[in-house]
Amino acid sequence: MSALFRLNGAPVRAETPSQMLLYFLRARGLTGTKEGCAEGDCGACTVALRTPAGFEAVNSCLLPVGAVAGRDVVTVEGLAQGGTLHPVQEALAAAGGSQCGFCTPGFVMSLFAAFYSGERGDDVLGGNLCRCTGYVPIRAALRSLPAPNPDDPFLRPPAPLPAPSAMAGFFAPTSLPELFALLAEHPEAKLLAGGTDVGVEMNTVGRVYPVLVSLASVAELQALEDAGDAVRVGAGVTLSRLERELRGVFPALDDMLAHFAARPIRNRATVGGNLGTASPVGDLAPVFLALDAQLELVSAAGARTLPLGDFFTGYRATALRPGELIAAVRLPKRQPALTRAYKVSKRAADDISTVSAAFAVALSAAGRVETARLAYGGVAATPVRALAVERALVGRPWSAATVREAAAALRAAFTPLSDLRGSAAYRSRLVGNLFERFFYESTPEAARP
User: Fold this and answer.
1) How far is residue 6's CA from residue 361's CA, in Å, rounded to a whole number?
2) pLDDT-derived band of residue 167, with 50, 70 and 90 as boundaries?
3) What's the distance, CA 351 to chain centroid?
4) Alpha-carbon torsion 19, 349, 240, 227, what sign?
5) Which strand (E) or helix (H) includes residue 326?
6) What would be the CATH architecture of the domain defined by 170-219?
């Protein structure tokens, strides 16, 4: 009834599968992994999970131990081999990248994952905050990393662990029929996708879920495939995988994913989880609304398809029926030539949106608007499209005058709230300004009547 996984090369068991991995590690004396925010924002708790392609940096503060059953976990204490520092530790020390040291283990583990993936861009350090603002030497350490040696022990595949067994209060079904049988037996169960929202609830407000059902191993939710006239994205596909495998296919999606949380969050957060929470500031929803996405919903009773625009019914409320979940998202391949997405937030990265927007506009040969989809987050109780303005644009010339008129209408289209991220007036201004920005950035000067 415990969770068996490999920790720094040695099999271990955790008796409380719902316990966050961070607290399990610290209770075992592995205190290099630290608690800074308990929300996945600071990186102090970063560890690495082995994947078929290498390693992924993840936030251990948001990861229940049951979710790593059968997996390999590496912490900062497990890097040095026989008293010899790992190359990422040597690089950070040589660059003078550690000051007070509190954040250092998290940076080391992000560097560790990047060392084996071959990535050397700043994105791999995202989600790690240095309170001493010592980013220059940390970035220098990243740039200086060599390629792994062929005899690197971390490149050797470990012996397989036994298949995960039953765990008290934590289930990891591998198919939809198994999932629906569990939900029938435990109707009070909380579904766990990536855990980046559920984990925050458990940590910050003390939410207790007697039964957790992980969706991470449900095979039917993991597909990312060509479905003829659409790309079909399983609800369990992580944002990092979406970023890798669909790069260049939907430019507006590329725009948004570049500013969507940080790498350790994207390594766990899923497409279905982000949409299913129905957050009015969720970053995927405006993009998928602009791309005219359809949802595949499934339950033990059957399946149905629903336009994403009909999915959000109110604040944090959806059209999901009891026992139903998102199985996949279908993104039509045929998209307008003009598509782009924007996110405005207090920080340039790893922050919640003040306003997000995504636009898709198709023009006729004569330069008139044939179709327009203008979607926003952060301006209403749900992610929303500006349907009246879309209709008014159809048939109009794609010109600065048309766009100015539409922008004025957009500023009056919603009644956003004021909060710590921005005033209602600021948000209303952004709604129009972002559409004007879209026009000038997507339309060459010679093509602007």
Assistant:
1) 50
2) confident
3) 12
4) positive
5) strand 325-332
6) 2-Layer Sandwich (3.30)
DSSP state of 250: S
Q: What is the pLDDT of residues 85-127, one digit of tens each?
A: 999 999 999 999 998 999 999 999 999 999 999 999 999 999 9
Spatial distance between the Cα atoms of 377 and 196, rounded to a whole number of angstroms:
19
Q: Which pLDDT band holds residue 446 (cuts at 50, 70, 90)?
A: low
Element (H, E) at 140: helix 135-143
- Two tokens, residue 4: 């068996």
| Residue spans per domain, the chain | 3-155, 170-219, 222-447
Contacts of 41 (CB under 8 A, 6+ apart): 127, 129, 350
Q: What is the CA radius of gyration of the chain?
A: 23
pTM, two decimals, is 0.95
Q: How far is it, in rounded angstroms, from Cα 183 to Cα 339? A: 40
Number of helices (H), then strands (E), in the chain: 14, 19
Torsion angle (degrees, nearest 10) of CA 189, 194, 197, 199: 70
Classify burial at 305, counting beta carbons within 10 Å of its beta carbon; exposed 0-12, middle 13-18, buried 19 or more. exposed
Condensed to tens digits (0 to 9), the pLDDT of residues 217-256 reads: 999 999 999 999 999 999 999 999 999 999 999 999 999 9
d(CA 217, CA 299): 17
Helix (H) or strand (E) holding 162: none
CATH dotted code for 222-447: 3.30.465.10
> H or E stretch including 381?
none
User: Going by CATH, does the domain composed of 3-155 fall within 3.40.50.80?
Assistant: no
Tell the residue number behind the tokens 């082995």, with chain if given. 50
- Cα–Cα distance measured from residue 175 to residue 210, given in angstroms and rounded to the nearest whole number: 22
Strands 46-51 and 369-377: unpaired
